Amino acid sequence: MTSGLETLITPELKALKGQWRETTCSPPISAADIRKWAIATWWPQTPPPLHWNEAYAATTRWGGIIAPPDFNPFAWPIVRIPLAPLPSPKGVKLTSLNGGQTETYGVPQRPGDVIAERVRVQDFRERHGRFGLMLYVDVETEWTNQDAALVRRRISTFIRY
Question: pTM for this one?
Fold first, then answer.
């Protein structure tokens, strides 16, 4: 319980606010990556042809295959780069909960795209709750393609107490 603490906001957390961590890049997206993701997403139904049928996709407004909006080119990394844990007050072990997320989509991902990802602590706030002092941390993840066009922005809220 955090009922005896004055604040869960540490100087380290304050220093993280608004600071983008190092950008990472995906390998180039292949049509096979998109096709496999679509098959897995729509299984056991057949996925929409926009995600696997080049002849059909060429007739659409997209002019070719595009990935489903939830496609993740970082899903199978060879080397996983762990996220640094959010700082906690000294001597306090905090419980963390997923407080939800909001997605904003930009341009679709296509074969040949290389996606750049950057992450930062966007904001934080405290409230008193049933478990004592609770910290809400909003983490922003932004994906852009090789043309610097926004692909996806996610705001994830973590609740810590």
Answer: 0.86
